[in-house]
């Protein structure tokens, strides 16, 4: 199995970046190299502000290994943000049991940064103090929207956490502690943001679900006889004769708007609603003139009589929606036919 | 470098009673600290038995050092295959993998070992888990001690550190379980056979024999530096197979039984692989295992693991006589059988076969 390097996994288009760098260099000929690289990085959305980036570059300039340039450092800063993007993609999907933050730190360091540590150490001098690496990780992997990347503040936070230990002339390897020191806060904050976003998403979904179920309830909480209303209106205005079939269809639509197939309904649970809604629909179909002759209360009284007659015929007080519908249709159809004929 | 998708998205979280998972740390003075997962319903006696596992598993890890013979070989990997004991059982334990991994780090004061005991209902990405243990969890302990000693001086509490690190370590391993096994380049390496172990186990039967070079063959002496010792290698398969069986019993996993599949030992750049195949005939567990040395300047005909595996199977399936197979394993082997059960037999192996003079 061929080991794949960090450079291959997290590729940056150095040629393209160099062309852009050259353009910046040509634009600001009077500026110094660090100023130009600062401008170059800021234009790549790297770092918090000009002076912070400038200070970081100045600080690490003399810590680079022989043969490495500050532009190499700048490229690695860009690559680090690319790695951050991949790591964030992973973190968004990660499900750590009990939202264990330490597990998030260990898992991400092992999967994304352990090998990176070996890679990035090739850029800096071997003998520099370990807290520099820890500070570097905080700078490189902070979110691009970070407000404060002041190198002195960051160094102060790390200098006492990471002692540099020697065994003879050799520096003792404490890379994992360095990685934890530099990245723990970032990973924890990122994962907390993921958890917060998930929570938000969940509550949004719950609200949506609640709204949907309320909507469904509203739909079922009323008989809607728009066909009855339209039919009566047509009859009142154009004096057009309404066929029995049309009346049956209108009654069927009125009942279907409430009763659902497979749902059980108690007679007492819908009786009053049916009387009110049917009376309302019939009343609103009447012209103003006819409304005066047929008050809403009067219509309600008429519907009540029909329903009372119907109630005497039923054997079971609880039936499926379809059953109520088929039982009610003949009674209501006959009532509406008579009502229209008497108008 | 390959970063996998988060495993937990694809499988439900394993319950503590579904897996066997333990992490044992032995410091440079061989003091042992552990963190072991077990069901909350276990009795105190069972928990005590579980707590003893760290000593039993780490025993042979110290053994090679304690014998004082030769170099300090590390038992890096032990794997057993699990077979269903009785298909008529009401519920069969769904365990599929059983292996141990050991990472050793030499520090100025001595050697520290981090040992993981893992058995799960899945096939596991062993290489990934080993990398996690040896490149992250174990160095975290060693480095954490160095850094905290320096920062906290007399206030440094090692117990607190080790308990916290073992907890983090076991959580990380558990989170990584369930990754599919991959073929790694190590499996393509070539080996040279320096011994064959024949084992037979039944209720009233326990046989273990070693076949190797003639005691006067210069090749025997030549390869002594490439193995811990014939004595240690003759003991290990039986020891670990019984210990794994005992572990399964302690965890109430009675539906499966173990057979050693592979043991890997390492000393610096040297590596020994013990590869075993088995068969059950008339209630007798019969197995043959090859002691293999990684290809080096002394080895002549080197073969891949698959070659040895195939020949071990051929002996078991009676398609080839043992004598004939011994020749295929290594033409220099003698048909002489060295008993490896009683102390006398093992002492004989130690005195004669491990004698470098």
Please give a structural write-up.
The complex is a heterodimer of chains A (343) and B (357). Chain A is mostly helical and 343 residues long. Chain A folds into 2 domains: 195 residues, no CATH class; 116 residues, no CATH class. Helix content of chain A is 71%, strand content 3%. In chain A, strands 1-2 form a two-stranded antiparallel ribbon. In chain A, strands 3-4 form a two-stranded antiparallel ribbon. In chain A, a hairpin with a 2-residue loop joins strand 1 and strand 2. In chain A, helix 2 crosses helix 3. Chain A is elongated and about 110 Å long. The N and C termini of chain A lie far apart (92 Å). Chain B has 2 domains: 164 residues, 2-Layer Sandwich (Beta-Lactamase); 162 residues, no CATH class. Chain B is built from 8 helices and 12 strands. In chain B, strands 1, 2, 3, 4, 5, 6, 7, 8, 9, 10, 11 and 12 form a 12-stranded antiparallel beta sheet that branches. In chain B, strand 1 and strand 2 form a beta hairpin. In chain B, helix 2 runs antiparallel to helix 3 and helix 5 runs antiparallel to helix 8.
Produce a short descriptive summary.
The complex is a heterodimer of chains A (343) and B (357). Chain A is mostly helical. Chain A contains 15 helices and four strands.
Q: What key phrases describe this protein's structure?
A:
heterodimer, A: 343 residues, mainly alpha, 2 domains, two-stranded antiparallel sheet, 15 helices, B: 357 residues, alpha+beta, Beta-Lactamase, 12-stranded antiparallel sheet, 35% helix, 29% strand
Q: What is the averaged pLDDT score of chain B? A: 87
Mean pLDDT of chain A: 90
- Label the structural class of chain A: mainly alpha
| Tally of individual domains of chain B | 2
Number of strands of chain B: 12
Question: What share of residues are in beta strands of chain A?
Answer: under 5%
Radius of gyration of chain B, whole Å: 21 Å
The oligomeric status of these chains comes to: heterodimer
Helix content of chain A: over 70%
Share of helix of chain B, binned: 25-40%
Q: What is the top-level CATH class of the largest domain in chain B?
A: Alpha Beta
Per DSSP E runs of 2 or more residues, the count of β-strands of chain A stands at: 4
Which percent range describes the beta-strand content of chain B? 25-35%
- Largest protein-protein interface: A-B, 37 and 29 residues
Unreliable segments of 5+ consecutive residues of chain A: none
What series of H and E elements makes up the topology of chain B?
Answer: EEHEEEHHEEHHEEEEHHEH
């Amino acid at each position: 199995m061929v080991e794949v390097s960090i450079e291959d996994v997290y590729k940056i288009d150095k040629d393209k970046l160099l062309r852009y760098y050259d353009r910046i260099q040509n634009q600001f000929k009077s500026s110094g190299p660090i100023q130009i690289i600062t401008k170059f990085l800021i234009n790549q959305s790297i770092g918090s502000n000009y002076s912070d980036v400038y200070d970081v570059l100045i600080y690490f300039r003399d810590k680079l290994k022989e043969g490495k340039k500050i532009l190499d450092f700048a490229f690695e800063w860009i690559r680090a943000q690319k790695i951050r993007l991949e790591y964030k993609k992973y973190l968004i999907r990660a499900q750590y049991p009990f939202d264990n933050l330490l597990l998030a730190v260990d898992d991400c360091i092992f999967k994304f940064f352990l090998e990176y540590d070996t890679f990035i150490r090739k850029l800096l001098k071997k003998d520099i103090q370990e807290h520099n690496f820890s500070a570097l990780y905080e700078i490189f992997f902070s979110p691009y929207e970070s407000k404060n990347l002041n190198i002195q503040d960051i160094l102060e936070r790390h200098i006492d956490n990471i002692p540099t230990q020697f065994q003879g002339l050799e520096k003792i390897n404490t890379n994992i502690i360095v990685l934890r020191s530099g990245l723990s806060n970032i990973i924890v904050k990122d994962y907390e943001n993921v958890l917060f976003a998930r929570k938000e998403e969940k509550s949004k979904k719950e609200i949506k679900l609640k709204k949907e179920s309320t909507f469904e309830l509203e739909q079922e909480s009323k008989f809607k006889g728009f066909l009855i209303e339209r039919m009566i209106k047509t009859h009142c205005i154009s004096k057009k004769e309404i066929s029995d079939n049309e009346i049956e269809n209108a009654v069927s639509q009125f009942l279907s708007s409430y009763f659902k197939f497979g749902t059980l309904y108690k007679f007492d649970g819908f009786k009053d609603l049916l009387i009110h809604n049917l009376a309302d629909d019939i009343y609103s179909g009447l012209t103003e003139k006819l409304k005066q002759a047929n008050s809403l209360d009067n219509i309600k009284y008429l519907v009540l009589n029909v329903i009372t007659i119907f109630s005497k015929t039923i054997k079971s007080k609880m039936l499926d929606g379809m059953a109520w519908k088929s039982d009610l249709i003949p009674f209501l159809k006959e009532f509406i036919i008579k009502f229209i004929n008497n108008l | 470098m390959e970063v996998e998708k988060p495993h937990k998205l694809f499988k439900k979280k394993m319950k503590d009673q579904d897996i066997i998972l333990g992490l044992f740390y032995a410091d440079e003075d061989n003091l042992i600290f552990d963190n072991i997962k077990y069901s909350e319903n276990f009795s105190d006696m069972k928990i005590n038995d579980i707590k003893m596992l760290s000593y039993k598993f780490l025993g042979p890890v110290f053994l090679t050092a304690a014998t004082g013979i030769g170099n300090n070989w590390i038992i890096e990997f032990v794997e057993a295959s699990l077979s269903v004991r009785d298909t008529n059982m009401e519920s069969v334990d769904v365990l599929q993998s059983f292996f141990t991994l050991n990472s050793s780090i030499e520090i100025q004061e001595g050697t520290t070992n981090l040992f993981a005991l893992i058995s799960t209902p899945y096939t596991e990405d062993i290489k990934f888990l080993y990398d996690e243990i040896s490149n992250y969890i174990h160095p975290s302990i060693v480095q954490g001690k160095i850094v905290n000693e320096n920062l906290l001086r007399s206030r440094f509490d090692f117990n607190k550190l080790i308990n916290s690190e073992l907890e983090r370590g076991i959580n990380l391993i558990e989170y990584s379980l369930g990754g599919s096994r991959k073929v790694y380049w190590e499996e393509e390496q070539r080996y040279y056979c320096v011994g064959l172990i024949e084992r037979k186990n039944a209720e009233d039967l326990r046989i273990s024999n070693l076949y190797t070079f003639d005691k006067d063959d210069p090749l025997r002496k030549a390869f002594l530096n490439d193995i811990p010792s014939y004595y240690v290698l003759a003991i290990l398969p039986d020891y670990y197979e019984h210990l794994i069986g005992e572990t399964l019993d302690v965890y109430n996993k009675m539906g499966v039984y173990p057979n050693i599949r592979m043991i890997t030992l390492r000393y610096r750049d040297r590596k020994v692989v013990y590869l075993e195949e088995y068969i059950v005939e008339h209630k007798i567990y019969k197995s043959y295992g090859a002691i293999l040395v990684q290809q080096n300047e002394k080895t002549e005909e080197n073969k891949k693991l698959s070659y040895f595996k195939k020949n071990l199977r051929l002996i078991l399936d009676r398609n080839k006589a043992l004598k004939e197979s011994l020749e295929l394993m290594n033409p220099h082997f003698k048909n002489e059988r060295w008993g490896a059960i009683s102390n006398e037999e093992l002492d004989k192996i130690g005195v004669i076969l491990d004698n470098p003079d």
